[in-house]
Amino acid sequence: MNFNIKIAFMALLSLFALQGCVEYRDDPICTELNYMTFEEFRAKGIEILAPREIKEAGKIYVYNNTLFVAEKNRGVHVIDNSDKNNPSPKAFIKIAGNIDMAVKDGYLYLDSYMDLVVLNIKNLDSIKEVNRVNDTFTYNAYQNYSYGCDFNLSNGVMVGGDN
């Protein structure tokens, strides 16, 4: 009898432990996956937009008197910091799948999911994309979705809702 109670207890414990392994395929996020073909994604490129509110700041890069503030998977805020007491937002670089950045000699290097994008930032009033190197990084299909969603890489890039 004691042995059966132990087995029942272990079985019950196992069920609770396995509950954390439930897949989220029925989650609304998973049923509304937003795909863009690789060709569409690359053709869309980047957009230089008017400054906007920073919703969730990520990495910050300082170059000369400019702050570049990443917003994960959305883009980079460009802020003129010449007057340290009164920083002035200049632009928002909308670039899907961006997490990291670096600056060298007037060029801003950004990741865009699996691609490396190079922008000329020598004139902040006229930021321009000068190069895109395809498939530089390993594509992480779950970068925008932390759920256990199934995805089909042949459908293209899984982008976030506002990309």
The global form is globular
Number of domains: 1
Any guess at the CATH architecture? Beta Barrel
Task: Please identify the structural class as seen in this structure.
Answer: alpha+beta
N- to C-terminal separation? 61 Å
CATH class call: Mainly Beta
H/E element string? Answer: HHEHEEEEEEEEEE
Strand order of the largest sheet: 2-6-5-4-3
Please give the radius of gyration in angstroms: 22 Å
- Helix share, percent: 10-25%
The CATH topology label is Thrombin, subunit H
Q: Strand content of the residues, in percent? A: 25-35%
Unreliable runs, pLDDT <50, ≥5 residues? 18-27
User: Biggest sheet, in brief?
Assistant: 5 strands, antiparallel
Query: How many alpha or pi helices?
Result: 3
What does this structure look like?
The longest helix is centred in the N-terminal third of the chain and has 17 residues, at 2-18. The chain has three helices and eleven strands. The chain has one domain: Beta Barrel (Thrombin, subunit H), CATH 2.40.10. With 163 residues, the chain is an alpha+beta fold.
Helix/strand layout:
Layout: H1 2-18, H2 28-31, E1 34-36, H3 38-44, E2 47-49, E3 60-63, E4 66-71, E5 75-80, E6 88-94, E7 101-104, E8 107-112, E9 115-120, E10 128-133, E11 157-159
Antiparallel strand pairs: 1-11, 2-6, 3-4, 4-5, 5-6, 7-8, 8-9, 9-10
